[in-house]
Structures are given as structure tokens and as C-alpha cells.
Write a structure and sequence with these properties.
Rossmann fold; five-stranded parallel β-sheet; alpha/beta; 9 helices; two-stranded antiparallel sheet; 252 residues
């Protein structure tokens, strides 16, 4: 390949890397990398395609010098304008744009990128969670961090029971399908929920389930929603930097 190309890959829990696809073209990552490294990659690649080698262009190293600032790229989505599209994230590309945040502090760079992407970042309020069984152990310490920051925790019955059993005070919200209740949707419409965290059973589709309806309602009412626990962890890192925690007066 002469010029730019991009590789999409995924790493599993065993650190095995799988290549999803290789595209012999530029991508949205190029402008971000060019800004972060001050290397005009598109221009250099164009010159290579025209027959001018890297050496002829005076480029004698592959990696740019390390900078003192962090650069973070955050995806931006247009789910509110794409009616009927499930907002659950997967390897399929669903973002329609990106934003950049940079700062000497990684946490502040993350915060800037998240804000610039259009996501609402609230440092108080209610977190509504509905977690698939296989994700509950990984989600527990994350929900505990929200709880320690002073957030109210609400969940569907199964998730609420799990959280209560592990010492997190949780309000139960009735499921949509089993209880024929729309109290979750009403809470989203009325602005009573700051964040929604929803993961699904990877072995069972839920395009017509509670999860799908909740995700759709969150998007339509501009409520920040997460379907990836990795992204939740990033948000918590930011919140813990900008939020004063809550503790009892006799706590050491």
C-alpha cells in the first residue's frame, strides 16, 4: 500500500488482537493525529502517492516527539436524528463525528472531549442502571463509585437486588414489559435521571425489550447513556476529579 491506510482491531480479555478490517484509505483518525502530533499526515501521504518518498520529504523518523499534553478523541453520535436505530454500541460504526479535548491533565482532557462531543456531564443526580448478569461483577465497583460521589441509584428489580446485597442503597423501578409500567420512561422524560447505564446479554437479542425502549427514551430526552462499562469508568475518572465526595462526619 502506498499512502495511508487504517486498521480496525479489537483485543479480548486474553490480550489477543483480532483484525476486523484493513482499509486502504485515510480515516477520521488522520486529522486528529495530525493535530495531536503536528505532523501533516494527509499532505505527506499525498506526496508519497505522487512519487516523493519519505526520505525525499526530509522525514527520518516514524514516531513524533512526545508531548506534554494529552489529546483525547471522543465520538459524537446522531441517534436523536436517526429514528428507530438502536443505540447499543458494537463494532459496527455508529458515530457520525468526533471531538477533541486536550490538556496537560489526562482527566481534564477527557472532560473537555466528553463535553465537546455533546454529552451532558452532571456531577449530581440519579443514575439508573439495568445490567446483564454477566456484567454485574464488573459493574458493581463502578456503581459503588457513583454512590460514594453522592448519586442516587435506581435500577430494575434484578439489578437492584444485586446492588443492595452488596451494600448499595438502590431504589427499584418497575420493568416495562413485566409490570406494564412506564415509570422509567416518565422519569427520563421529566429529567429525573442524569445517567443511564444499560448492558445486554450478548447471547440474547433485545431489540424489542426494556433495554431498547430505555435506550431510545434516554436519547430522545437528551439523557447521557452508556452501554459500555469501559466508558462509564472514564466518566467516573472525570467526575471524581471535578466532584466533591460525600461522607459521614465520623468517617475517618
Amino acid at each position: 500500500i502506498v499512502g495511508l491506510y487504517n486498521i480496525q482491531f479489537i483485543a479480548d480479555n486474553n490480550d489477543d488482537v483480532y483484525v476486523i478490517e484493513v482499509n486502504p484509505r485515510s480515516s477520521r483518525t488522520v486529522p486528529f493525529l495530525s493535530k495531536a502530533t503536528s505532523v501533516p499526515m494527509a499532505h505527506i501521504a499525498t506526496q508519497v502517492i505522487l512519487g516523493h518518498s519519505l526520505k525525499e520529504q526530509g522525514i527520518d523518523k516514524v514516531y513524533p516527539e512526545e508531548k506534554k499534553r494529552w489529546y483525547v478523541k471522543a465520538p459524537a453520535f446522531s441517534f436523536s436524528k436517526l429514528k428507530g436505530m438502536d443505540t447499543y454500541l458494537s463494532p459496527e460504526m455508529k458515530s457520525t463525528g468526533e471531538a477533541i479535548g486536550y490538556d496537560k491533565s489526562l482527566t481534564r482532557a477527557l472532560y473537555k472531549a466528553i463535553q465537546a462531543s455533546g454529552m451532558n456531564v452532571a456531577n449530581y443526580g440519579t443514575v439508573f442502571v439495568t445490567i446483564a448478569d454477566q456484567d454485574k461483577p464488573a459493574a458493581l465497583p463502578l456503581i459503588k463509585r457513583f454512590y460514594d460521589l453522592g448519586f442516587n441509584i435506581e435500577a430494575t428489580e434484578g439489578t437492584a437486588k444485586y446492588l443492595k446485597n452488596h451494600g448499595i442503597r438502590t431504589k427499584v423501578r418497575a420493568k416495562l414489559t413485566l409490570d406494564d409500567s412506564d415509570e422509567i420512561l416518565k422519569a427520563l422524560r421529566q429529567g429525573h435521571i442524569a445517567y443511564v447505564i444499560n448492558t445486554i446479554d450478548i447471547n440474547a437479542g433485545d431489540s424489542h425489550s426494556d433495554g431498547s425502549e430505555i435506550r431510545r427514551a434516554a436519547v430522545e430526552n437528551n439523557v447521557t447513556m452508556f452501554t459500555s462499562l469501559d466508558t462509564v469508568k472514564v466518566l467516573l475518572d472525570v467526575l471524581e476529579e471535578i466532584t466533591l465526595g460525600v461522607s459521614t462526619i465520623d468517617e475517618e
